[in-house]
Amino acid sequence: MYSDFAPFYDVVQGGAAEAFAGWIERHAGESGPSRRSVLELGCGTGAVLERLPANWTKVGVDVSPEMLEIARIKRMDAEFLTADIRSLSLGRTFDVVACVYDTINHLPGSDWPSVFATAAAHLADGGVFLFDMNTLGRLRGDAGEEHTTEADGTMVSMRIRDVGDDRYDWHVRIERAGTVVEDTISEYAIALSEVGAMLEDSGFTRVEVSGGRDQPVGDDARRLFFVCRR
Ligand SMILES: C[S@@+](CC[C@H](N)C(=O)[O-])C[C@H]1O[C@@H](n2cnc3c(N)ncnc32)[C@H](O)[C@@H]1O
User: Fold this and answer.
1) Which label site among 28, 86, 153, 214 has the fewest CB atoms less than 10 Å from its CB?
2) Which residues line ligand 1 (CB under 6 A)?
3) Both 146 and 63 in a single domain?
4) Is residue 1 part of a domain?
């Protein structure tokens, strides 16, 4: 997963990293000093971290060496570690722990509590854990459809297939300057009520959920955004 896709990842993501960085900055900046520390779980190519303020302490963790190779080429002031976010233990805490752009959906629902435990274990007192997810409704609704977009000479086609057991395989085909790359990325979705219960079990007692841009909150929203505090 992501090994062949990595060199094309930034080109095909459009403005998403910018939007996620803005969201993180808004929630991190609610109180206290302006200098912040952030841990990004599933940081990929570092596209979000590079858009956060230069004076923040940044650590990015990802399981894909290919994605991290792109992140390191950018030479930003950040530490990048190859590790699994289900079992990460850095022995230090951060003002913000972020897990964005449906990274959580890359794991089966039964593994989400371990990611929430990782977030809780790395959060400083008063810190905030931010994540988003593709909803059950979105993945169910988009299954069987194919979307093709073209940007900067890159053609991207995506087809989502419902393979059962709450798993949806995204078949991605990228064509750029005569090179064709294909990858399959599995995503999993679970009901909002289950996510709420898992967060509570992980010690997150204050959780705000939004559908973004005044969209309703529920399993039929496309994407949900979670702001979690203990
Ligand atoms: C959709 S990308 C998001 C990357 C980045 N957060 C962004 O917004 O550009 C999902 C990332 O999660 C990573 N990932 C998936 N499962 C992981 C795991 N168990 N541990 C660490 N990283 C993981 C993938 O390698 C990939 O880079």
Assistant:
1) 214
2) 2, 17, 20, 42-44, 47-48, 62-64, 67, 84-86, 100-103, 106-107
3) no
4) no
In degrees, rounded to 5, the angle at the alpha carbon of residue 56 between the alpha carbons of residues 53 and 59 is: 115
> What is the percentage of the chain residues whose pLDDT exceeds 90?
79
Which ligand 1 atom lies nearest to the CA of residue 16? 8
Same domain, 62 and 40: yes
Per-residue pLDDT band for 11 (boundaries 50, 70, 90) equals confident
Residues 100 and 87 in one domain: yes
Decide the pairing of beta strands 223-229 and 206-210. Answer: antiparallel
Based on the domain organization, do 129 and 220 belong to the same domain?
Answer: yes
> Going by CA atoms, what residue is nearest to atom 12 of ligand 1?
42
Residue 13 lies in a domain: yes
Output the pLDDT for position 32: 57
- Expressed as residue numbers, the domain containing 119 is 6-135+190-229
Query: Of 42-46, 69-73, 150-154, 184-188, which range is least confident?
Result: 150-154
- Which mutation among 103, 158, 170 tests ligand 1's pocket best, with the greatest number of atoms within 8 A of CB? 103
Mutate to test the pocket of ligand 1, among 62, 97, 107, 183 (most ligand atoms within 8 A of CB): 62
Residues 110 and 61 grouped into a single domain:
yes
Domain of 49: which CATH number?
A: 3.40.50.150
Query: pLDDT of 193-222, one tens digit each?
Result: 999 999 999 999 999 999 987 788 999 999
55-112 residue pLDDT tens: 999 999 999 999 999 999 998 999 999 999 999 999 999 999 999 999 999 999 999 9
